[in-house]
From TrEMBL:
<protein>
    <submittedName>
        <fullName>Glutamine--fructose-6-phosphate aminotransferase</fullName>
    </submittedName>
</protein>
<dbReference type="Pfam" id="PF01380">
    <property type="entry name" value="SIS"/>
</dbReference>
<keyword id="KW-0677">Repeat</keyword>
<dbReference type="GO" id="GO:0097367">
    <property type="term" value="F:carbohydrate derivative binding"/>
</dbReference>
<dbReference type="InterPro" id="IPR035466">
    <property type="entry name" value="GlmS/AgaS_SIS"/>
</dbReference>
<dbReference type="GO" id="GO:0008483">
    <property type="term" value="F:transaminase activity"/>
</dbReference>
<dbReference type="GO" id="GO:1901135">
    <property type="term" value="P:carbohydrate derivative metabolic process"/>
</dbReference>
<keyword id="KW-0808">Transferase</keyword>
<dbReference type="InterPro" id="IPR046348">
    <property type="entry name" value="SIS_dom_sf"/>
</dbReference>
<dbReference type="InterPro" id="IPR035490">
    <property type="entry name" value="GlmS/FrlB_SIS"/>
</dbReference>
<feature type="domain" description="SIS">
    <location>
        <begin position="33"/>
        <end position="175"/>
    </location>
</feature>
<keyword id="KW-0032">Aminotransferase</keyword>
<dbReference type="InterPro" id="IPR001347">
    <property type="entry name" value="SIS_dom"/>
</dbReference>
Length: 334
């Protein structure tokens, strides 16, 4: 890493060390929280987040429904902040996900949730933020300061915090053991070959990012970075849903990117992607950088590599990855 290395890349490269520190420092808190959740057995899980935090919430939906069997609902914060309505959350576990902890509508959701009888857990990077003070339990992300606009390490530390929480909650010894390897796997991802290049995107005017399950969850984050950091129009789709209508956009020079994670959904996802290829469509595959990787950790390794690559894509397109056009460091929503 040199003085000319973009801050975006420097922050992304901090992730392995940040995750190692987080897993150690949050170990006792997640032990206690896991015991509490087994005792109270929430009726459902309600997740609040904006932007990249919302994408982490999509990851959490798959994670908690698969590992706990408890239904997960994504919040619509405007119901409270714009329409002034409350949600009946008695008996729910509410997860507040935020880097800054300062968006007013997210803070309002936390207050509403507590008044409604929910148990509120905050996954927040700024431990002194107003949102952190509103939560019953805080799981700090421990990502350190974010100096650039595009979130990288805060997204990845959110995912690792979610993994640690579900492992403790469900007594999943296999996942708990795998998490000890996560910092090293993330470091390996940093050293791996690129999974996306500007050459893959040069002839694409519009882009669909396809994934299945956890792959679809991180496709949302990939899409945001393609648009925000590289000025490439992109939309995320589940590969299972894409054929139900959006595939008709192919004639409009729609490029296809496939998020390839080798987990339980891999075979079904590949079957759908192969149908598109057999129909004569060009699909660029974003493959997980570490082939033999525990299934639940693979999405993190893919995102880690993608963040490093997307900075190079931006540079080759004449865009400063630290100062993408039109973006602010913190987006305030009310």
């Amino acid at each position: 890493m040199t003085a000319s290395t973009p801050l975006f890349v420097q922050e992304a490269l901090e992730t392995p060390e940040r995750i190692a520190n987080q897993l150690e420092e949050n170990d006792h808190t997640t032990d206690k929280l896991g015991s509490h959740l087994r005792l109270v057995s929430p009726k459902f899980i309600y997740i609040v987040g904006r932007g990249s935090s919302d994408h982490a919430g999509s990851f959490a939906k798959y994670l908690f429904e698969i590992e706990t069997g408890i239904p997960v609902v994504g919040a619509t914060p405007s119901v409270t902040s714009a329409y002034g309505s409350s949600i009946k959350l008695d008996g729910a576990l509410v997860l507040m996900i935020s880097q800054s902890g300062r968006s007013q509508d997210v803070i309002d959701q936390a207050r509403m949730a507590k008044l409604s009888g929910a148990y509120v857990v905050g996954l927040v990077n700024d431990e002194n933020s107003p949102l952190a003070e509103e939560c019953d339990v805080l799981l700090p992300l421990k990502a350190g300061g974010q100096k650039v606009i595009g979130a990288t390490k805060t997204v990845l530390t959110t995912l690792s915090a979610l993994l640690q929480l579900v492992a403790k909650w469900t007594h999943n010894k296999e996942l708990s053991s795998a998490l000890y390897k996560l910092p090293d796997l993330m470091e390996q991802a940093c050293q791996s070959e690129p999974i996306i290049t500007n050459a893959m995107l040069n002839s694409i005017e519009h882009c669909a990012v396809l994934g299945r399950g956890f792959g679809y969850a991180i496709a949302k984050e990939i899409t945001m970075k393609l648009m925000g950091n590289c000025c490439i129009h992109a939309e995320p789709f589940s590969s299972a849903e894409f054929a139900h209508g959006a595939v008709g956009m192919i004639d409009k020079k729609l490029g296809l990117l496939s998020v390839d994670l080798r987990d339980e959904a891999f075979a079904k996802h590949q079957q759908q992607i192969q149908e598109f290829i057999d129909a004569g469509l060009t699909v660029h595959k974003l493959k997980q950088p570490i082939f033999n990787c525990p299934e639940r950790l693979a999405p993190l390794t893919l995102l880690q590599r993608f963040y490093l690559d997307i900075a190079n894509v931006a540079i080759e397109r004449g865009i400063d990855p630290d100062r993408p056009p039109g973006m602010q460091k913190m987006i305030k929503t009310f």
